[in-house]
Fold each of these.
Amino acid sequence: MFFSVIEEYSAILTGHTAPKHLLRCENTKTLYRTCNLTGRHELMFPTRKPDAGMDYFKDMFQFMCFNSCPGGLNRRPIIVIFTLELSGVVYGRKVLDVRVCACPGRDKADQESLETRKKNKMKNLNTPPPTPDENKPSTSGETPAGSHNGRIKREKEDEEEFTITVRGRDNYEMLLKIKESLDLMNMVPQSVVDNYRKT
């Protein structure tokens, strides 16, 4: 798995004991280290007894720049790994994907909207167009002699799938409506279409 160490080089923060660490802990007993093997930044802080009636304790953490900072994270994904250790023995581990942003509510809504659009797009791409039921008797009465062969040829041609690249959301939405209309038309018997056109 590829990872790279992200270091914060802000001139304002150079007075801190660990100016290159992106993550800081407000616990005064925190030790800041850099692993010699991986180059990862490490924060070590002691656990403490929880308050009465609680089964956990809280420590405050602060990220020194946003995911969008060009000099730091520059839109790269980051993870924070918490480990519970005693004398070098790891008793627990939790890995968190983290996104640091100025407006979490807006960014969450934007991300959810993007994910919904992606899911809908994939669903539309994976859903084959509906085909008429061949076992269903024709409602138009008898068919002319040559029309059966023409229908089979047309159905074989209709099995082909094509992909169109579209620029612009409005154009995409319009083509999606046209596709859905054509799919619905394929479900309607030809006699109903003919009656509709006569009126």
Amino acid sequence: MTKDEIKLAYTQAMQWVQEAGDYLRQAMQEGFSVNHKADAHDLVTTLDIEIEERLSQAIRRHYPEHRICGEESQSSGATQLSELAGAVWFIDPIDGTINFVKQQRDFGIMLALYIDGKASSGLFTM
């Protein structure tokens, strides 16, 4: 990707993360389900899955050739990666899920773009 393409991707990612944050703040008031992943301290909510899917869809719509690695990847169809060549997006739909479940404010949405194994841009919103 050229510098201009990376700037455009960053601008788009800012919009996607802001929209996801707006959705999350509204949806957390309406309720959500909580499940355990590997153990009792590893939680996933229905909103984790929804946010990851929303971000994945936005990326695929604009960058179908890019790969996606999401924390909840099994539920969103994201790629499990063995290497970081090319453009790879990393998604943590709710970083701090335990705090989110407890309705504390110490959580956020993370989205990052790596190009050929190097961090190109990253966003985190609370």
Amino acid sequence: MVLFGPSGSGKSLTLRAVAGLLRPDAGVIRIDGRVLFDSRAGIDVPVRQRRVGFVFQDYALFPHLTVRQNAAFGVRGLFGGMTRQMRSRVDEVLELFGLSRLAGSLPRELSGGQRQRVALSRAVVPGPGVLLLDEPFSALDLPLRSRLREEVKGLLDQLGIPLILVTHDPEEAVRFAQVAVPYRKGATGEIIDCGETPEEGPDERGQSPWPGFHGAADRLVRCTFDTAEV
């Protein structure tokens, strides 16, 4: 799923509410049928129990921890210990993201793309039920952004973790979206189901499925529309 729209429209606030970093005034948050928040029922599942991975826009790596220690942060015990199974899991994810040879490096010794992969690794290691990405490519220069976008898409497809991506970049929206939710001025529009086999052009009403976007978005599939609350 992609949440797209201009800056300041509430996309990142939505991610933070899903992750439990922000408490909504009212409403219900469900993931795969599991209620994480319900204001009327008094349900507010703690962050560590939500099984949600979060990659922040600035990556938020711990500068004093190595690549391995950053990646393992979500599965370390109270005193920093890990089971053999978790150590194996960390090694597996570092290998998948091409970070094994950098396991002993600090964030300041890494490139922007490498730091991004460390942040993704940290989010993936605990085995989240959903992965939240808050404009993960915005800090990268254009050539690197395009390359890493494809690399990350391939890795996430391989892992099979459901994804919610926040962006105001139409290229990213086009690349990642199967379902899209447009945001504008703090409100959501119609949920857009883009299906799996795109066809170019507007829908039968002659409307662009991605209002406010041009260029790359014009290549999107003919989408079906469902009115829904988000």
Amino acid sequence: MKMITTPEDGPSRRMRQAAVALGCAVAAWTALAHADEVPMAPESFSISDSSVAEFKEIEGREALCLEGDAFLTDHSLRSGSITVDVLNSGSRAFAQLIFGGIDEDNFETAYARLHKSGQPDALQYTPILNGESNWQLLRDEQAVGEYGKETWTTLRLDFTPHGASLRAGDQGLLKVDHLRLNGKGSKVGLKGLFSPCFSRLQVVGTANIGDAANPSRLRSEGSVQRWGLSATMPFAGFPPTLSKHNLSNHPWTVAEVDPDGTLFISRYRRKQAGGAFEENEVDVVYAGLSIDSVNDTTIPFSFDLSDKGAVYLNGRLLLVYDNSFRAKGPMFRGDFNLQAQTLLLPLQAGRNDLVIGIAERANGWGLAASFLREGSLKVEPLLVPHSAEVAQTDRP
């Protein structure tokens, strides 16, 4: 962590900060439903080693300009509100509020894209899973935000274990009905990308009302609910054909989709080198299904994935495509959409192995699929055994 401070001199400031910090701790402990103003000072935050935090005064205010993550040290809450002012500089910056955190690699965020005032994606939500953002997989979790022309814009986040809403000033509201971490964590804090500046941070803890989860989109009929999933591997292109020997360095495991049918791969697999946004290396996993058909038939298969993908049926390559951020122009976002494409699968009678390669750099590693006509198909996760077992079973 790199930390820069420009504090006022004198014991009065230190005494004032100590008194406020003590008040915050007492309020968090007793769960009083009133706002605690958090001092913008190093002792208020746990800042990761890779983050850069600058504590300084801006227009007479204590402020924190942040590149990275800063978790509050004296607050832990599953339901409540976070209010903070962000500097409205107009330059590209992402001012993010952390909540529902399990640890420093897994937490919820709702945030303002400060350079997108008035745009339909000015406010967004994404979970951070194993250190990676997933906004490309959540194209409906965004809203218009108006930041106006004042120097500071106030963000207010209200959240429970299963839902949240984010406001920017008096204009713009983002509502999230289904939080992806399902209320498992209680860490809160701030996160910055491209060094936004925060001031006047307030936290309010409320009683956990235990609201029921309300997924915004339920999985469609015929959607795949469980996949076999390979280990993470460095991406060096998709091979022209695929065999178990290509994929058996580690045994596969079963991965389940979310209620809307999306497989959040980062929930199950960590990138070999990640957390650096567009500077990440590209990694790949393979997801598979075993499909039993009573006869030779052709079925429609609707799917999408992020970022790059390849579809194999019984080892034969059917399709390769690229849905990466900016792959089709500077404004192309690579948003995830289950209805993006439909592929006709020529199944043979008996067992068929459907394997999909998914390569990812950043912004959302995911897969969703649906059989538009299941009929008498039997669909199960494909589990490729370890290479030693493959060698054993492949012997004549």
